[in-house]
Every structure is written in C-alpha cells, then in structure tokens.
Specification:
single chain, 295 residues, mainly alpha, DNA polymerase, domain 1, hpI Integrase, Chain A, 3-stranded antiparallel sheet, two-stranded antiparallel ribbon, 12 helices, 52% helix, globular, CB, Integrase_catalytic, DNA recombination
C-alpha cells in the first residue's frame, strides 16, 4: 500500500468535523510553510531530522508562535498515527524551543527591559562611527519595530518623504511604522557611506573574499552589537530587543493605549498594557527618589 503524502494527511487533519473556524484558520496558516517544504513527500519517509530542521528554521517567528507551530505539527503526526499511516510519531517527546533572550523573547511579563536615558546616550556614542549599526539602532528605537521586521526591509519599502515603512508582523498582519527626523538622517548617512548597492535589501553585508552582497543576517548584526557594547559597563546585558521596549515605555501616557497597540503590532491589548505597569513602577521609583532628596 502506497503511503499518502504529507499534504494528503494534512487535508484529512484539517477536514475533521468539529473544528472551530478560528482553530481551522490557525492550523492552515501554521501548516502551509511545512507543506510548501515537504507536502509532496510520502508521510512515512519524513524522519525526525527533517522535521526538527524545519522547526529550527522558524527563527523569524516569535517565540510563542514557534511553540504553536511545533504543537500543531505534533498534533498532525499524532493524527497520522491514529489513522494508521505511521507506526509512531517521529517527533514524539520533542522538547519545545526555549526563548532566545538576545531577541527579547520571554515567558513572563517580568522580562520587560528598557534602556534608561543614560544608557541610550551611551549606546548612541558606541555606534557613532558605525553608520550601519547607528541606522539600525535609531530605526529600532524610534519606530518600535522588531529586529526581524527591520532586517526584512528592502530599500523600496521605506518612504523617506513620509518617514514610514510597512512591515509584515505576527500573524502575517501588515502595519505601518514611523520614524523621526534623526533616524532619517542616520539612514541617509548609512546609504551614502555603508550600504552596498548590489542588493535590494535595506541593510546589506558583503562577503570579504567573493565580495558577494546580500541581506545582512541577524547573526551578523548580533555579533556587531556584542562587539560595540562590550567596552561599556552601562550596557552590560543590554539587548537589541530592549529598544522596542524602550520605544513603548517612552510613549505610554503620550498616546492612547489602542494607538500604541497598533504601532507595536500587538494582537492583544493585554500585551500593550504590560508597558503601563512598567511605566507606573518607574514613576513610583522617581517619586520615591524625589522624596528622599526633599527629606
């Protein structure tokens, strides 16, 4: 008996009776990338290694989204076992991915970390001579975009006249991000002095030997970040993602919480409300410090 393809089993999995519309939509969007990569494979030829490699390739997704992807794929293969297409789930007992702290991923509200004004001043001094990193830091700080979103930008995606760009965020939802005049200046300086022309990407890198130009990777940016902040004790343990948190905490109270949610691209208002708690704690600390000085 010929084994059915992964796509055929996935179709049966999605056509099960009783699935809510929201659940079905979530399953479909989660499984589409997997089916694009392996849908034509007979399901019994898919080994643990291929599936793990696929799951590990989802680094562009948020931590919680990667966990949902893995759980859905687990459910799909459990269904294949139940239907008799497989003797065992090839990713049985596969551990869920751990959050990458360098990307600002976390599992609790307590992990919100932002940069203070002295830290920001120190950071901008650290990147002053690196036009590419200066542009990236300024764009992250002023727009609130995620580093993964910024690194996916092409030059044509940026509207310099309106000082804005559009990103594809979580849940494949598009949103506008806006940047300030000082960021526009930093971007123009980078494009004059640091950007390689033979690539559509906004932020580029060039191989030292072949001179091949391509979109810069997160790994390369992270290495540059670590090198630049290493000499500065005030920036110890600072992360690129902290700039997104800084953007949000700077704007809480200056705009409506719904407007901030839209700028941040949060699906739930509860996620945005975390920044109100952070700002309240910061205000409490400032108030206590002021009282101490008056006594």
């Amino acid at each position: 008996m010929t084994s059915p393809t992964l796509a055929a089993v996935a179709t049966q999995f999605l056509q099960r009776p009783g699935l809510a519309k929201g659940t079905l939509k979530a399953y479909e969007s989660t499984l589409m990338p997997l089916l694009a990569a392996h849908g034509s494979w007979p399901i019994d030829l898919l080994e643990r290694g291929e599936i793990v490699e696929y799951l590990q390739s989802l680094t562009h997704l948020a931590y919680t989204t990667r966990r949902k992807h893995q759980a859905t794929v687990q459910s799909l293969f459990n269904f294949a076992v139940e239907q008799g297409y497989l003797k065992a789930n090839p990713i049985v007992r596969l551990k869920q991915p751990k959050p990458d702290l360098h990307k600002g991923e976390h599992t609790s509200d307590d992990a919100i970390r932002y940069l203070s004004e002295p830290q920001l001043s120190c950071l901008y001094r650290a990147v002053e001579l690196d036009t590419r990193m200066k542009a990236i830091i300024s764009l992250l700080h002023r727009s609130g975009a995620r580093i993964s979103e910024v690194l996916q930008l092409d030059l044509d995606d940026v509207d310099f006249e309106e000082q804005r760009f559009q990103v594809l965020g979580k849940g494949n939802k598009q949103r506008w991000c806006f940047f300030s005049k000082d960021t526009a200046i930093a971007l123009n300086e980078y494009m004059r002095e640091g950007r390689h022309q033979r690539s559509a990407a906004l932020f580029t890198a060039q191989q030292p030997i072949s001179l091949e130009t391509s979109r810069i990777s997160y790994r390369r940016i992270h290495q540059c970040w670590e090198t630049l902040i290493e000499p500065y004790p005030d920036l110890k343990c600072a992360r690129l993602h902290d700039l997104r948190h800084t953007f949000a905490t700077e704007r809480v109270g200056l705009m409506g919480i719904e407007e901030l949610r839209a700028l941040m691209g949060h699906e739930s208002i509860q996620t945005t409300l975390r920044y109100q708690k952070v700002t309240s704690r910061r205000a409490e600390l400032v108030a206590k410090q002021a009282l101490d000085k008056l006594q």
